[in-house]
Structures are given as C-alpha cells and as structure tokens.
Specification:
The structure holds 2 protein chains of 2 kinds. Chain A is mainly beta. Chain A is built from no helices and 12 strands. In chain A, the strands form 3 sheets. In chain A, strands 2, 5, 6, 10, 11 and 12 form a 6-stranded mixed sheet that branches. In chain A, strands 3-9-8-7 form a 4-stranded antiparallel sheet, with no helix packed on it. Chain A has a two-stranded antiparallel sheet with strand order 1-4. Chain A is globular, with a radius of gyration of 14 Å. Chain A starts with a strand and ends with a strand. By secondary structure, chain B is an all-beta fold. Chain B is built from no helices and 11 strands. In chain B, a hairpin with a 2-residue loop joins strand 5 and strand 6. Chain B is globular, with a radius of gyration of 13 Å. The chains are: A mainly beta, B mainly beta.
C-alpha cells in the first residue's frame, strides 16, 4: 500500500518570500501524486497533480511541484508567497493497483507574516 | 449551485442522539467518498460508493452508516457516537473512482459529540 510523509508540520514565511513544502511517498511503481490546499472553513482544493511525463508540474495560484523518483519526493514550491496562501497543504498519493484510495499526508500549515 | 455541498456545516450532538450528514454533488460524478479529518492526522477514508454501490468500507464502526440513494447524494447516518468521533467530516466526489481521478471536496461538517 502507498503512504505519504510531510515532514514539516508548520512553516512560517514572509509575504513575498519563496515557499517549499516537502512530500515523500512510499510506493513501488509510478504513483499518482497530488497537492491539495485547505483554507480555514473550506474543503480541499486541488493545486496540481502528476501522473507521468514532465516531472515539473504547474498548478493553480502560481504553485509548481517537481517529481523526483530517485528521492521519492514531490515537493511543492511557490516563488513569491501572498498572504492569501496561508492555509493547510496536503500531499496525497494514489496507485493504479488501488483504485478509490488516496493516501494523504498529515498536512503542513503555512503561516504568512506581513 | 455547483461543486460539492454538505449540510449541516456544524453539528453538536449527544452520545444518544441520531443525526445524519448530507452531501450532494453537482458535477455528474459516479464516485462519492466520506472522509474523517482530525487535527494533525491524515485524512481517513471511511466509505466509497461507485455507481451507488459501496466499494470500500475501511473498518469503520457500525455507529456510522452510509447511504447512497443515487449518484448525486450521499448520507452518513450517525447514532450512539463517542466523543472521539468529534471531527470534520468531508465528502468528496470523482468522475469514476480511478486512482488518477481528481477528487472534489465539500466544505465539511464540523461534528462535536458531547
């Protein structure tokens, strides 16, 4: 079965600074990888996803993520953070052998300071 | 109305009460999901329905009872809950339930069990 680790529970970043959120997954074959964002009082919204092809994936709101098979990682980045990016971010992994099941990480809370 | 809606948004109930959570998706999807979200823990998949048939039941206590009368509606019936069941309950839907499908989430029902 697949699993996900998000090593950082909480990150504080200044507005305008860059942001990188780490995600490590465990799965033997090529995984389906997702990043979701959850703002306070909201459900989860998809930022981007990776299945195959170009390992650098562009998403909404200026986010991008890079799949690195050798490191089993799928880190999320944004060059310049806005105050509205304060939220909780979840990495998730799916597997073709395991339909219906997305495994989520515990999440990283991002605080943006002025 | 678009997307995935959930009612009520907040629910407080005693351990002897019976209540139901409702989810409706307006996306024409065939798969629907119930998740439990507790603070600082990964989302826990509870139930999955595909074309109105239950396809996953992740060892959820019988005090939680799902119902999917059609592909647009999903219910979670609650009875004799415990305080540890207090959490945010999220509903999601996806096109077909395949691992690569994007899941679309509702805003959740914040449940408090006294």
């Amino acid at each position: 079965a697949q699993s996900v680790t998000q090593p950082d529970i909480h990150i504080t970043v200044s507005e305008g600074a860059s942001l990188e959120l780490r995600c490590n997954y465990s799965y033997g074959a090529t995984p389906y990888l997702f990043w979701y964002v959850q703002s306070p009082g909201q459900g989860l919204q998809l930022l981007l996803k990776y299945f195959s092809g170009d390992t650098l994936v562009q998403g909404i709101k200026g986010f991008e993520a890079e799949f690195k098979r050798s490191q089993s990682s799928f880190n999320l980045r944004k060059p310049s953070v806005h105050w509205s990016d304060a939220a909780e971010y979840f990495c998730a992994v799916g597997a073709a052998s395991n339909d219906y099941k997305l495994s989520f990480g515990a999440g990283t809370t991002v605080t943006v300071r002025a | 109305e678009t997307g995935v809606t959930q009612t009520p948004r907040h629910l407080v109930m005693g351990m002897t009460n019976k209540k139901s959570l409702k989810c409706e998706q307006h996306l024409g999807h065939n798969a629907m999901y119930w998740y439990k979200q507790s603070a600082k823990k990964p989302l826990e998949l509870m139930f999955v329905y595909s074309l109105e048939e239950r396809v996953e039941n992740n060892s959820v206590p019988s005090r939680f009872s799902p119902e999917c009368p059609n592909s647009s509606h999903l219910f979670l019936h609650l009875h004799t809950l415990q305080p540890e069941d207090s959490a945010l309950y999220l509903c999601a839907s996806s096109q077909s339930g395949l691992a690569e499908d994007t899941q679309y989430f509702g805003p959740g029902t914040r449940l408090t069990v006294l």
